[in-house]
Give the backbone structure.
Amino acid sequence: MKINPDWWKTLFDETYLITDARSVCDDELTCREADMVESRLELQKPWPILDLCGGHGRHAMELSSRGFEDVTVVDYSGFLIDRGRETARSMGLQTKFIRKDARETGLTSGAFRAAIVMANSFGYFVNADDDTRFLLEAHRLLAPGGKLLLDLTCKDFITENFKPMAWHEADEEIVICRERQMEQDMVYSREMVLSKTEGLIRDETYCVRLYSPERITELLTELGFSSITIQNNYASHRETGDYGYLNNRTIVVATKPG
């Protein structure tokens, strides 16, 4: 499939909150995922926590609402950052929102005790070297002893259950159709969003790179992480259905030594 390598700079807008509402606008699902994060990272309330590529901050705000005192969201989408900032303000939360590129945030080295990358927000770059830059930046931002949690698409599940076509109705008005193609470790998806009254709203192609447990462990080790643990086939959705890359996931936890 033909793809714009910078697709991720524009895709995450108000339409995204419709197409992926079953995952990114489900408060109960967000709570379950926050439970997992809190448990796997053994978070402590005073820790500075980074939600990297955190979108509109659904996990970050859930943690803030639980009493975590210092939670920061970084995302490239100005729309999602503004949405999250407004929501946090309306809820009386102190969650911070910063619009930056995850490969080069400009934030202070060693500023965070924990960093999370949720909902398969890793692997979007066409060039694999940019994935490496992403992880190097996460490593830089963590304090010695800090922990990174990656929530990835489960490669084995996608490979074994690959569906070249999928569609669902977001509501009574909007239908989302996805055409998929797999090439080695990359899955490309053409997403067509249709309004029953207005016609075609969006026709975009995006991609994700799939990492096996062995490959992500190897890469994290090369970049200086240690104590790497893997949980395959994590599923936070309670209903059956095709949730794209968010059905079964791989949860990776790694530590910056020190």
Notes: The chain is about 30% helix and 35% strand.
